[in-house]
Design goal:
Elements: H1 13-23, H2 27-30, H3 33-76, H4 79-113, H5 119-127, H6 139-144, H7 148-172
Helix pairs in contact: 3-4, 3-7
Length: 173
């Protein structure tokens, strides 16, 4: 059974045309209040997933900026100056983290409702591609999206590892 027969998405325009011809009605007659509700729910899911991705990008940038600040700026400051800057950095870190996790929690429901299990599924849904349809043959679709969990984990390990190294390095210098 297809996703639109289960009420998860709407059929594409071509399918609607074929169904309307088969039943001898117009496409407008096929689309009623339930279709509008599904359109609204799909728009809400798209908004949630896009906000989750934006929050993830902000969190990603926050981690990079923090690593740079920790490695260059904080090591040049005196202990008193560092104590003044560190609380601000903690607040920024917490803001980015909380914003990301709030949207991640909301996105989990949207992903579960639409059976989006991978980064490839999420991007395809956001782009409006049909499930199981062909995808562009680019590096993004072949190497990044299918292995997104690996890339994200590798990034976090590198950032956290470099922060640990910097902490020990600044204490020994």
């Amino acid at each position: 059974m297809s996703r639109w027969e289960c009420g998860r998405t709407l059929p594409d325009v071509e399918s609607l045309k074929l169904i309307a011809i088969y039943f001898g009605v117009t496409v407008d007659e096929l689309l009623d209040a339930d279709a509008q509700r599904m359109i609204d729910e799909t728009a809400d899911a798209l908004h949630t997933l896009i906000m989750w991705i934006c929050a993830g990008a902000l969190y990603f940038l926050d981690l990079i900026v923090e690593a740079l600040i920790d490695s260059f700026a904080l090591s040049a400051l005196s202990d008193a100056e560092r104590r003044g800057v560190e609380p601000l950095l903690i607040v920024l870190r917490l803001f980015a983290m909380v914003w990301y996790f709030v949207w991640a929690f909301r996105a989990e429901k949207a992903r579960r409702d639409r059976s989006l299990t991978s980064a490839l599924d999420i991007v395809s849904f956001i782009e409006g591609r049909r499930p199981g349809g062909s995808l562009p043959n680019t590096v993004f679709y072949r190497l990044i999206l299918p292995f997104f969990s690996f890339w994200w984990t590798a990034f976090l390990v590198i950032v956290c590892g470099s922060k640990i190294v910097l902490i020990f390095w600044t204490r020994t210098v």
